[in-house]
Amino acid sequence: MKPLIVTSGDPAGIGPEIVLKAVSHWQSQAMAQRPLLIAGDPEWFDRLAKELKISTKNMNFIPIKWDKDNIFLGKVGKEPAQAAFEAIRAGVSRCMFQEAAGLITAPIHKESLAQAGHQWPGHTEMLAELASPSAPPAVRMMLVNPELKVVLNSVHLSLKDMIDSLSVDGLVQTILLAEQACRQLGVGAPRIAVAGLNPHAGESGLFGREDIDIITPAIARARSLGINASGPWPGDTVFMRARHAKEFDLVVAQYHDQGLIPIKYLGLDQGINMTLGLPFIRTSVDHGTAFDIAAKRTADPGSMLAAIALADRLASQLEQAQPSLLNH
Questions:
Q1: 234 partner at 20 to 30 Å CA-CA among 240, 249, 274, 312?
Q2: Contact at 8 Å (CB) between 282 and 73?
Q3: What CATH number belongs to 148-265?
């Protein structure tokens, strides 16, 4: 049984704290059989563990030496960003060489990442390029909690750039990845709702033609491929229909905040970020570095624990379906 790798996240934030808390809790569970490897600086984690009164005796690390003298809790900086990046790079490398079953990442800070010279707008784009620098895979962000599943058609783009980049081919690819992800999560015949872009899904062209000229043809093509996709549905009601009325199993949102606001409104403690399209399993928390509470040691590890549990479940499913892929 191959291990899962848990990356440290930005050590100026709550990443190492929630990693220690979640790994400690996970290892105490009778069902926790798969080993976990923490990618980060063991000295930093040992010191933090003493502060949190957590034992690291049974924890294993991918050791990465950090410039600890220049990492300050709650502060933007290139040193903590570089520490987080090295942990991610080490984790991706092991996954690509099939030495690990998957990757679980703690949060990074985008401003710090830019200071360190890394121009990716977020984890999703970074992981795609690290996985295949010459030909990054098409990836999408999926957010999951017990009440709602959402896939984003675009991730870290301005609204103007998102509208300019909207295409039939891109949206069809998003719907296909969403359908595959639903099946991975145990939904046998996924019902996929596609949110509109404009108010009231364009109101028959009164508020823009993107819903007519791009989104509707993409849904029609997806349906021709055998996918139960529908829409475009107005963005102000489609999430309620998926959550309360249970009319849909998943919602495809057109842009970042359209999809993340309803997910995060439901709470961060059980939310999971899942990257679709990578050649390995990747899950993460659905919150940020929380610099404001980094020094308080009060961070809730619930989302990290949920991300570990989902990665373990997906890895076990893959091992059962393709034993030669992960066990040899």
A1: 274
A2: no
A3: 3.40.718.10
